[in-house]
Design brief:
By secondary structure, this protein is mainly α.
Length: about 375
């Protein structure tokens, strides 16, 4: 093949690659929240998967067990929250609401005999179907939104599963087809991979620890506080406190501050002491707020990124992109840090782009901290 034909062939293949990347980019842009949340679950679960894979040789079985270890507890927590919510709704619901709902229906079983005796009454009650139709439409819209949310959640979990199962193959493909282990590109990708695992897993671990601590704090408070100022559904509040830890800066304040305000109101109504609610506020602030943000999260994240940078990534990501910005913000911060570590010395100073980012203190040095790289070659083996 002559030089001209070779050049034309490369241009055609380059056009095909650009088109393929554009198509993939279009799908990622349309489902960016789904993809980013799937990456979050993957990196949050990968340390657990590494432990499971050491004991289970089959890759599919190891990935399945890892996902079940994450999904089943979440489903249990959601089921518990649903049961508690239904119980509380049943406790405060007005029985007259059921009577009113039955009264709207023209086929009320208690009035069927009357309708048979007087069919004209049915025609007279058809005008009452308007409110019922509105309620049915609202319910259908809600169910549609819920179904769409479950679909996106299923896609995210599926993406996490396949990344856990085939992560070793992907790493091997990158090393053999894209960038070798000694190249700067592979060093950059490994640095991003390691930092994302530490940041995301640190977030997941922080939420778990805060949830467990909140269960102890809230239930312990109810064990010693007077009944007049006891916390309602303390375990459910503890679960919500753990989930609120995902929200930067505010964290558990979303739960324990309103709960304490409720207890103060109850103390005022019952003419009880304000000391127990005040003590709960102080303990919650120290154990569920200050300690996780200043000590726990940096330690669990491995201090690979500056804590202030991660904080701004969470806050600005959520402010700019919405709910999925909580996961996209740290990803962008990690990419920017690794680009700065590898490319800035070359662009600004003119140094060669080496595989090792010497002197980088704000991001993971992948050639020093190889333990956090993608699953090893043993995971690349076939089932």
């Amino acid at each position: 093949m002559d030089l001209r034909s070779l050049t034309q062939s490369r241009q055609l293949w380059l056009g095909a690659v650009v088109a393929a990347v554009a198509v993939v980019g279009l799908f990622v842009h349309a489902f960016v929240g789904t993809v980013v949340f799937g990456l979050f679950v993957y990196y949050g679960a990968r340390p657990v998967h590494r432990v499971v894979a050491d004991r289970v040789a089959n890759r599919s079985a190891a990935a399945t067990l890892t996902m079940l270890a994450l999904v089943l507890p979440v489903l249990g927590l959601l089921g518990y929250a649903a049961v508690v919510g239904f119980r509380e709704f049943a406790a405060v619901a007005d029985p007259a609401a059921v009577e009113a709902a039955l009264g709207v229906l023209p086929g009320d079983p208690r009035s069927i005999s009357a309708l048979v005796r007087d069919p004209g009454a049915l025609v007279g009650r058809l005008d009452r179907l308007g409110p019922l139709r509105t309620r049915v439409t609202t319910a259908a819209t809600t169910l549609g939104a819920l179904g769409a949310g479950l679909l996106h959640l299923s896609l995210s979990l599926s993406l996490s599963f396949f990344l856990l199962r085939d992560g070793g193959r992907l790493d091997a493909w990158v090393r053999t087809r894209v960038a070798g282990p000694e190249t700067a590109a592979y060093s950059f990708l490994r640095g991003v991979d390691a930092d994302l695992e530490r940041v995301y897993f640190g977030n997941v671990a922080t939420v778990g620890v805060v949830t467990a601590a909140a269960v102890v704090v809230y239930n312990g408070y109810n064990a010693v506080a007077p009944a007049s100022v006891a916390l309602p559904v303390p375990t459910l509040l503890a679960l919500l406190t753990g989930l609120a830890t995902f929200v930067p800066i505010v964290v558990g304040k979303l739960v324990y501050v309103p709960a304490t305000a409720y207890l103060v109101r109850e103390a005022a109504v019952a003419d009880a002491s304000y000391l127990p609610p005040a003590a709960l506020l102080v303990v919650s602030f120290l154990l569920l707020d200050v300690l996780p943000q200043t000590v726990l999260r940096p330690v669990l994240s491995g201090r690979t990124l500056h804590s202030g940078l991660v904080l701004f990534a969470y806050v600005l990501g959520a402010a700019l992109f919405g709910w999925y910005g909580l996961f996209l913000g740290p990803l962008l911060a990690v990419v920017v840090v690794q680009v700065a570590a590898h490319a800035f010395p070359h662009v600004v100073v003119g140094e060669p782009v080496d595989a090792v980012a010497d002197g980088v203190a704000i991001g993971t040095d992948p050639d020093v901290d190889a333990a956090t790289s993608t699953d090893g070659a043993t995971d690349a083996a076939d089932d």
